[in-house]
Amino acid sequence: MKKSRVLFASLSGSVIEWYDFYLYGTATGLVFSTLFFPNENPAIGLLLAFATFGVGYAARPIGSIIFGHYGDKIGRKAALMLTLIGMGGSSFLIGLLPTFEAVGLIAPILLVFLRLIQGIALGGEWGGAVLLATEYAPKGLRGLYGSVPQLGVPIGLVAGSFSLTVISYLTTDAQFLAWGWRIPFLFSAVLIVLALWIRSGIEETPAFKEQQEKGEIVNVPIVETFRNNGRNVFHVIGLKLGDGFFNVFLMSFILVYATNYLGYGNERALTALTIGCATMILTIPLVGYLSDYIGRKVIYMTGVALLFILAVPYYMLIGNSETWLFVMQAVMLGVLWGAIFSTQGTLFSELFPANVRYTGLSVGYQLAAAIVGFGPMLWTTMAEAFGPSPWIFGGFMMGFLALSFILCLFIPDTRHVSTYESKQDQTMNM
Fold first, then answer.
1. What dihedral angle (degrees, nearest 10) is formed by the CA atoms of 17, 23, 24, 30?
2. Which is nearest to 272 in space by CA: 327, 215, 314?
3. Cα 174–chain centre separation
4. Which of 280-284, 354-358, 423-427 is the least confident region?
5. What whole-number distance in Å separates Cα of residue 106 and Cα of residue 97?
6. Whole-number Å distance between alpha carbons of 323 and 346
7. Cα distances (angstroms) measured from residue 26 to each of 33, 96, 253, 306
8. The pTM of the whole model exceeds 0.90
9. Which Pfam families match (predicted)?
10. Is 35 within 8 Å of 108 (Cβ atoms)?
């Protein structure tokens, strides 16, 4: 099978999954807080809306267990087809939901339910997309291949926010709130059909086939994962928390922070976010390629350290002018976080043996995501209590970045680990 088709299948599904997931995040502050959680106090409506945003993150560990189980027992391909259906179907239905004004409390209840489905689907998608790429990678290029599905995050976010921006320019404010915001959600149905067609034409990964041939498929992957690789699961959780909180801020809460607390318009905030994501699209494959030569651990630690150093200056500078807002989004999101994220999927997957790799990779990552997903609720409360204080927000980020840096000292440089020799993998992780 052509490796280019596998990479395209990994990337296309990842783009669409993140398009749907971040489309919801963009719409949270712009639409849902008004139409589904109306309140005389806008801060309370926003807080409730971000609670549903966090629900999607909280559901991701459930998806990691469900799809990790099927991915390690039945195959990566089957699990990835199901995640696409779950994400696409729920996003399409969000576009059809009635508002609070039309049906009362039923509206936010349905919204929360569909957000749960989104989270469950994404909880299984990310790990599977990474493995689809890395387990097909030729020797010496696993970092580059593993960075390709990571491109789905910035591309999906840009596509989601861009679609809402275009619709907002083409409609009046009243039209946008009445029906315009629904169009990008409904369009996800078309994208999902396309991605399903692409993924249906690929074969199972060589690493999973090897497990089948050797009879090394485990009965209950989640039990096996924590029995022999529990330490690495907790390593992944700690490693992800530092950059994870900053990521949620830089790619989601920045829209609220910049508009509600710094006084920028929606267009400026969205432009800053787009600049950061566009920069990341360049950073991810370049750093992924470099990680095969200088090591993923070195890149990861360097990125975390620089985020730590620039945490407080970031908050100080973005409030000074829109130029600094654009520059710092490019630096913090596009370059530094992009470099960390580029290596993350490959680095984490290399910590687990092939027979529980889908489960171990997904569960560790998504448990951390469940924690950081409630960051917007914390930051809304912090901003209401202290204002946009650089020391409060920067100090918050620095605490978790320090944890990730310390944990990174205790993991091996894994770029030479074979993804195909499962017995060797198991020995390394015992």
1. 170
2. 327
3. 31
4. 423-427
5. 10
6. 34
7. 11, 17, 9, 27
8. no
9. MFS_1
10. no
